[in-house]
Each structure stands twice: as C-alpha cells, then as structure tokens.
Write a structure and sequence with these properties.
Radius of gyration: 19 Å
Strand content: under 5%
Structural class: mainly alpha
Low-confidence stretches: 120-125
Mean pLDDT: 83
Distance between the termini: 51 Å
Helix content: over 70%
C-alpha cells in the first residue's frame, strides 16, 4: 500500500477530539447554567440534564460530520484509496441491514430474558427519559435510533475502521473499531456479561458489514434498527 493511500492517524485524532470536546462543552455549559438556578427542583434539574444530553449528542454528531467532511473528503468514494464508506446504499443492502438489526436485537433480548442480571441499573437510565412526558421520550428515541447510531458508526466503522485498515488490513481495522467501540461503552460492558455481549456483537456485526465492502450507511441502519427494537422492548416489558 502506498503512502498516498494511507489516512494519517492525526485525522482520526482531530475528529474524535472534536466529537468529545463538543459533548464536554455542552455538559460543562449545562452545569454552569444550572448553577445559576440553585432553587430548581430535582425533577427540573433531571429534565434539563436529559434534554441537554440529547442536544450534546446531536451537536457532537454534527461536529464529527463536519470534521469528517474536512479531513476525509478524498476517501469518501469507493474509487481509489481507502474508502470511508460514505457512498450510496441500495434498497437490498438497506433491507438486509434492517433484518440484521432486528435479528441481533432478538438474540440480545432472548439472552437478557434467559439470563437476567437482577439489577435495575440498566432500567434506571431509561427511566430518566420516560418519567417526564412524551416530548422527552420521543426526543430520546429519535436520538437513540438516528443520531447516536450515525455518530458512532461514523466514528468507529467510518473513521477508525478506514484509518487502521489503510495502514494494515480490513481485519485489523475491524478489530480496532470493535475494541474502541467497547471501550467507549464501558458502563454498559461492566454492567453484566449480557450487556458486554450486546455491545461486542453489535460492534462486530457493523464491522463485518464494512469489511464486506458495504457502505457505512448499512452499519448505521443496522445499528439504528437494533436500538429501535431494544427501545420498544424496554418500554413495553
């Protein structure tokens, strides 16, 4: 592989820094803003924190997208060099991605029912978004089904996979994308073994999609479908 085909690691570093810096700035701004209203009830503080968490995810996803457009423009198509994967997706690929997301969610639900953790830790995070009415609930679902999958797949199966693959091969790129994906989801991974299995299987399936040469949008759709099914399951159980 020639040096022209390799994507500099520094590009990925800047993209990740932009994403997490945006999340941090929104979180810090929220803390400073709430500090001006110390008389607020705990419910209102919880509501404000939940909304700003969603806002932070949206803004961070936008920042990551702009940085990818800036640093990886030459790697966006399948023609020449290493592809970031942002090329059109076919109807067949979309359908396969949806089915894969549903199937994976079904497997994880079956595992969680068969081997319950006996803890409410996982449910408490959902409760924060369901106890304040439909507006927050729908906002949480939209962020979980559309925004978070887009941002995470752009970072891990787009940036990490492509950069590492350009220096080594697709297998190493896939492993790196899954490892970093699990590292970012440490709270879930450490919760219970089924949670760790869920994060690993999701990352592995999305990495497999990219390793097979499918567009990044296939991984985004798979991830979003998976989140959608689990969100519905969590609310109706």
């Amino acid at each position: 592989m020639t040096s022209e085909e390799k994507i500099p690691y520094s590009r990925g570093l800047w993209i990740f820094m932009g994403y997490f810096a945006t999340r941090w700035i929104v979180a810090a701004s929220t803390i400073l803003w709430l500090d001006q209203f110390r008389g607020l009830s705990s419910d209102k503080v919880s509501l404000a924190t939940a909304y700003t968490g969603i806002l932070g995810e949206i803004l961070a996803a936008g920042a990551a997208w702009l940085l990818v457009r800036h640093y990886c423009r030459s790697q966006m198509s399948v023609e020449g060099g290493v592809s970031i994967g942002l090329f059109p997706i076919s109807i067949r690929q979309s359908a396969v991605s949806v089915l894969a997301g549903v199937a994976l969610a079904a497997v994880i639900i079956a595992l969680s029912v068969t081997f319950p953790s006996g803890s409410r830790a996982a449910g408490s995070a959902v409760d924060a978004y369901t106890m304040h009415g439909r507006a927050l609930l729908y906002s949480w679902m939209i962020a979980g089904v559309a925004v978070a999958p887009f941002a995470e797949e752009l970072l891990f199966r787009g940036v990490v996979f492509s950069i590492v693959s350009s220096h080594f091969n697709t297998f190493v790129g896939a492993v790196a994308s899954v490892a970093l994906f699990m590292a970012v989801h440490v709270p879930q991974v450490m919760h219970y073994w089924t949670s760790a299995m869920a994060v690993f299987m999701l990352g592995a399936m999305c990495a497999f999609v990219r390793a097979k040469g499918m567009p990044l949008w296939a991984a985004v759709i798979l991830h979003g479908t998976y989140n959608a099914v689990l969100s519905v399951w969590t609310m109706i159980r």
